[in-house]
Amino acid sequence: MSTLICLYSRLMGVKDVANLRISLPASLLEPIPNLEYWQYADRADIFAAIGDSDDEVERMLAVLRFSFSKELKFIRARLGKPYNSALGEHFRCSWRLPPIVIDRETGEPVIRTHIHVPIPGEPAYGGQGGSGWTTPILGPEHGGKPNSEASSIISSSSKASKKQSTGLGLKQGNKSTDTISINRAIPGPGDEIESDPDAGVVESEKVTVVFLCEQVSHHPPISAYYYTCPERGIEGYGMDQISARVSGMSVKVGPGSSNRGIFIRIAREGPGKGEEYQITHPSASVNGILKGSYYGTISDQIQITCRGGEEGKTKLRALIDYKDESWIGKPKFLLEGIVYRYTVGNEAEESWTKPKQVPADKIVANIEGSWMKEVKYRLKGEKEWKVLLDLDLLALIPKDVRPIEEQDEQESRRLWDPVTQHLVGKNWGEATRQKQAIEQAQRDKAAARKAKGEDHQSRFFEPDWEDGRPTLSAEGKKAIESEMARLDAKAKERENEL
Predict the structure, then answer these.
(1) Helix and strand counts by DSSP (H, E) for the chain
(2) What is the mean pLDDT of the chain?
(3) Where is region (Disordered) located (predicted)?
(4) Which residues pair with 304 in a beta bridge?
(5) Which CA distances in Å does 276 have to 59, 211, 477?
(6) For 239-251, what is each residue's pLDDT tens digit?
(7) What string of DSSP letters covers 429-476?
(8) Do you find a cis peptide bond into 221, omega within 30 degrees of 0?
(9) Selection from 74-88, 128-142, 231-245 with the highest mean pLDDT
(10) How many domains, in total, are found in the chain?
């Protein structure tokens, strides 16, 4: 605690903590690389379903679901400081899973994999470094296998599911669920889940989502990232840079100057082809630092703007306002927002940032709820609110990552493995020494480049990313194709076993 207080006092008044060249003791770090920690596909099933609808309003609602789901780690997992990224470090992973579907009768999302089941003693927010999960029961209309015996919670489209999902929500007499269906999905290096969370879904319903990122700048620290779901023709890309400062008794984190948000593009044929959605980032605060009990809050506003696609005079835009928390009482994590139609080329209409700025006749949907619990929407002209996303139902979905022995030397898990192993073993002194050795090696490489008059060249992304939209290099495309081929081979091997 004395180390933490000393560090906190040093950071007071610093304009941007993220740019400080400060090396933390390993004991204050979480055993996870920065590039792995800051990925936004903890629910890759929601990302994969973004372009499923032929209706433009429903596509915007799908982008909103992804926007709320990308913060899931701050609900389920313990907050912590990951390792600082090294220049040229990269991380890749993938998922093979069934995308969510929208129930035709209720209009609500059906979650088809990794439904959250609270671990005994799990706090209301801030997590324990993971979350329990189980497999939903799905009918054939939602891609389920007939007479499936694989799981324990009914899909989220049923109102009864909320009642059954309290506690452990297990079927009586299902002996296999104690050790197979209920597990912790660790959002980082460790024993991630290898059992079958999608036993209720036919294999043909599953798709592949691949993620690749690379640290392209060290001072300031900036990374480029790319997601793709080739079966659904969905791409995501952007630049990650954060700005952090100590504010009162918390650390406030926001996007840096190179961070223009997350860009989602629909590349498949059909309605919506060529649409690009720009999702800006809110600000977040890490609270409870001096108490040693961290939790996060979100504030400010975000905008989601649709551009491109079919020619038209108007497009859709969403504004979400995250409510500031009161100094008194427990945080409520509330938000409200709207979806409105703006005129293409009208700078005033595209500059609105708060819902109250938008005239009522331009609003097509209202949004309200809690980003920790449940978010609802109501379309213009309708009285009934519908569930946009029930975050209570969502567990973190484990990533599929190649074994360390198959990774490159600069790949995140392999690069930081000496530190990770000692942190997990609580050997703090050796973990700090290993961390310092890695950091010194990076300084030596930087000095060698400077002596030769050379600049660092990114491997997986082209050097032009000034507009916040990185482009894969030939090597980056090759890495994506390799990851897809690896998952396809695993899927075929699994089909043969069945």
Answers:
(1) 11, 24
(2) 83
(3) 126-197, 440-498
(4) 279, 318
(5) 11, 18, 20
(6) 999 888 876 667 8
(7) HHHHHHHHHHHHHHHHHHHHHHHHT-----SSB-S--TTS---B-HHH
(8) no
(9) 231-245
(10) 1
493 Cβ neighbours under 8 A, 6+ residues apart: none
Residue 484 falls in which region: left (phi positive, over 0), alpha (psi -120 to 50) or beta: alpha
pLDDT band at 184 (very low <50, low <70, confident <90, very high): very low
**12-48 per-position pLDDT tens digit:** 444 554 554 555 566 678 889 999 998 999 999 999 9
Residue 312 counted as domain residue: no
Is residue 350 domain-resident?
no
**Per DSSP, what are the bridge partners of residue 33?**
83
Query: With bands split at pLDDT 50, 70 and 90, how would you rate the model's confidence at 193?
Result: very low
User: Residue 139 in contact with residue 148, Cβ under 8 Å?
Assistant: no
Query: Does residue 307 form part of some domain?
Result: no
Q: Which residues pair with 92 in a beta bridge?
A: 212
Residue type, 413: R
Question: Which two tokens mark 120?
Answer: 């005994």
CB atoms within 10 A of CB 427: 14
Instruction: Assess if residue 384 is contained within a domain.
Output: no
Residue 46, phi then psi, degrees to nearest 5: -80, -40
Q: Is residue 107's pLDDT more than 50?
A: yes
Give the model confidence (pLDDT) of 80-102 as tens digits: 788 999 999 999 999 999 999 99
Q: Which domain holds residue 7?
A: 2-243+255-271
Determine whether 469 is exposed, middle or buried from the number of CB atoms within 10 Å of its CB (0-12, 13-18, 19+): middle
Q: What is the pLDDT, as a whole number, of residue 322?
A: 94
Residue with tokens 């296998």: 145
Q: Are 297 and 287 in contact (CB under 8 A)?
A: yes
The four Cα atoms 398, 399, 404, 406 give a dihedral, to 10 degrees, of 140
Residues 6+ apart with CB under 8 A from 479: 92, 212, 460
Q: Report the share of the chain in percent with pLDDT over 70.
A: 80
Burial label, 231 (beta-carbon count in 10 A; 0-12, 13-18, 19+): middle
